[in-house]
Amino acid sequence: MNKKVALSVLSATVFASMAASAFAAPKSGLYIGGNVDKYYSMNTLLGGMSSSALDQFSTEIGSAGFSNLIYVDFDGKGASIAEIMSATDFESAKKDLTADKFEGVYSNIKADGSADGTYDPRNDAIDTPAGDLKVESVSAINAKQIEIKFSTEIDADTVIDSTKGNGLIGNAIAIVPTGSNTNAITIDPAGDNSGGAQASGEFSADGKTLTITAPGTDVFEGSYSVTFADKAVDDVNGNELAEEVKLFSATDTTRPTADASVSYTDNKTAVIGFSEPMQSKGTVSYKFADGTSLPAVGEDGLTAPISEAITADGLEINLSNLNVAARNKDIVVTVIGATDFADLIVSPNPLTKTIKYSTADATAPTVASITALSNTTAEVKFSEELSGNPTITIGGTAATVTQSSTDKTKYTATVPAVSGLQTVAVSAFTDKSGNAGTAFSKVVNFTVDGTDPVVASSKVEKINGVEYLVVTFNENVNTTNGGTIALSYVKDFVSKTTSIVVDNAGVGQNFYQHNLVSGKSSSVRIDLSSLTDSATYTATLPAGLVTDLNGNLSEEKEITFVRNSDSVSTKPEVLKTAVGTGGNGIEVPTSNTVKVHFASKIDGASATNKANYTIEGATVAKAELLSNDAVGGYVVQLTLAEGSSTFDGLRTVTVSGVKSETGVAMDPYTTSESLLENVRPTITKAELTDITTGTSTEITLTFSEAMDPATIEDATDAAADFKVFIGGSEFAGTIVEAGAGNTFTLTLNAELTAAQLTSGVVVKPATGIDAADVNGNKVNFTSVTVAQ
Question: With the CA atoms of 655, 660, 666 and 669 taken in that order, what torsion angle do they form, in degrees rounded to the nearest 10?
Fold first, then answer.
């Protein structure tokens, strides 16, 4: 592609999209897919690339083609360059990007054209389907929890018993191991939580997602069936769920992470939240931010200055026993080796957070605003986060109150439909420092929307290799229980008709809300895989295909779209059963090498890209393909940078971005593996320790760490590791090397005279020296002067 053409297309797009970022989304910039898989950030694009980098850039986008170029603007929205060029303007083309829009892991490219690490935009993208009263999906989210997505808001009382620890009602939902799996989960079969610790459940704010947590030491591992008893689960409108069975498999390879900020139950109880339930808190230590120690037990009359425990919310830290002098001071918490229920170590490890027992807040919270969102909900924003849900009534009716997951100062109050002017009253609210707010009320107008949603646009979009018809309406909509979409088209000059039966849940799901943001979307997508003919189709969308948020049915609409073909391919995987890997596909032959075994033939270019492999606490210096066939296996050897692995122990290994021979990128794979430190030992000192008159001289070498005696205590003088030079000349006698740990002696078979000592004694490495530490790392030195 001509460089000027490439840059003019991109620059027009970039400068048309200047805006402030509004929410979590893939990073802004250009993603080049195809066989390139590179990410150019906005800083790189606007910061002035070198001439060679521009040449590389224009070649890459020409090779990839516009359909494989994904542009993301400053607001986190984007589209392919092909979509942008075919649209009337960028604003009409851009959208919230789903994970399946991206091909995998991309190399970060700097202004000089070189790579600097990797970025996986799928972690920041969104894609959450929804539908009517069906079970949309069941999946494991970690070793301790599974997630069940329903298509409408569920009546929680038909699933969990909130009066008994949120115990899961076993006669509504049954979870049973399948196949050879014997790893059962304890569920209350009687529905009264009488059998001790039982699996518990919790619904999301919208009531559509149920998270089930295994009790005690139970974990999800292996394959399971989930049976929903006939008519036992109801939604909030009284609709009953028909009997249904879902299957899922659980294998947790994702390390837990800590929440970005510390939360506080109150001003003296800090909570470090995690991405999943934790099994062990590891080792926890504290110090003041200035580096000084906290009062010890027994000082200032304290019996326990700080205590901590793992709870359902995370690591809860009790600061209530701190004396007055220690309050209002920043305290650094260091957590080492905390693990989840799959024994995966927290990332990063060690983890540090800053906490404080603060007494500074003496200001009571206030109501900042009250806004009607629909004819059933109002949003109440406070001046600060509260210690619990406030009491809210709308028109005298007590509301169901839910805290926002994105803004902790906002609460949504929900009541049955109302209209016109209504008094919203807020009371019983307290901030986290215990300051009580004053009751407040306001008259708010709840307008009733009676306008039907209409189709604004439609297009075909390929997601995970499958084509979908994406229909966008003029307002946010929900899917209904579907209907029949009538289709007509011409194939080989013959007019034909067919149809798609739209069903928004169940086996063969084909109807979803598309690109949900905070549970809402103005678009739906319809699976086109049942249409086997590539052609231009005319479709009649039936009335009532969707509803808006106030229940108004969509109008009938005729649209036209082009159906092409799907292109689903197999992704490469790490071969966990490979010999010598201990069940995770990772082999550690030496302190400096790691082997990754794959299950099938892989693309050499991506397999040898060292940026596709990360090892916690070590640096991958090189990746080379040792074998790539059925005979020798599909093996990549990683060479670690010398000295980059500084300790023996368990670390997290992540493999991503490696492609199949047909160019399909693997799903990121994360596991734990024990590595050895690979820091070469040094000689910290050499000293003259003994002279026996007429017979011998002893020199003691002290190493920086324990050495392997077998590599030093050689059988013959010819195989010795060390030579001794006196006044610049090599000692002509024999030298016996012996020792243990980090101390070894060189015994010379002659007494050194005062004159010889005055001339200087130096130890140097012998030719072929193989002295090494216990991990096989060879000693690193050129010479050392013997102290006298």
Answer: -30
Q: Using alpha carbons only, how large is the chain's radius of gyration in Å?
A: 33
CA-CA distance, 684 to 190, in Å (whole number)? 69
Measured distance CA(401)–CA(378) in Å, rounded: 10
463-467 contacts: CB < 8 A, separation 24 or more?
463/98, 463/100, 463/101, 463/525, 464/100, 464/568, 465/566, 465/567, 465/568, 465/569, 466/527, 466/528, 466/529, 466/566, 466/568, 467/528, 467/529, 467/563, 467/564, 467/565, 467/566
Look up residue 487 and give its two tokens: 């289709």
**Residue in the structure block whose two tokens are 């231009």:** 536
Q: Is the sign of the CA dihedral 727, 731, 736, 740 positive or negative?
A: positive
Contacts of 292 (CB under 8 A, 6+ apart): none
Hey, what are 338's tokens? 């905390």
CA pair distance 258, 261, nearest whole angstrom: 8
| 3-state secondary structure (DSSP) of residue 698 | strand
Beta-bridge partner residues of 167 = 161, 200
Comparing CA positions, the residue from 259, 298, 248 lying closest to residue 136 is: 248
The dihedral over CA atoms of 532, 533, 535, 536, expressed in degrees to the nearest 10, equals: -50
Q: Which two tokens stand for residue 267?
A: 């001003």
Residue 333 CA to residue 714 CA, distance in Å, equals: 49
Residue 131 pLDDT > 50? no
Cα 155 to chain centroid distance, Å, stands at 31
The model's pTM: 0.37
Residue 194: count of CB within 10 angstroms of its CB: 11
Closest C-alpha among 580, 586, 678, 571 to residue 636: 586
Whole-angstrom CA distances from 86 to 79, 459, 468 are 11, 11, 18
Q: Do 274 and 257 meet the contact criterion of CB atoms below 8 Å apart?
A: yes
Per-residue model confidence as pLDDT tens digits over 475-525: 888 876 678 899 999 988 899 999 988 865 533 346 777 776 655 788 888
- Cβ distance 655 to 634 under 8 Å? no
CA 188 to chain centre: 32
| Cα–Cα dist 589/678, whole Å | 12
pLDDT one-digit tens code per residue, 28-75:
899 998 778 899 988 888 878 888 888 888 888 877 777 788 888 877
Which residues are registered as beta bridge partners of 33?
none
- What's at 91, amino acid-wise? E
Cα gap 47→43, rounded to integer Å: 5
Check residue 252 and report its DSSP letter. Answer: -
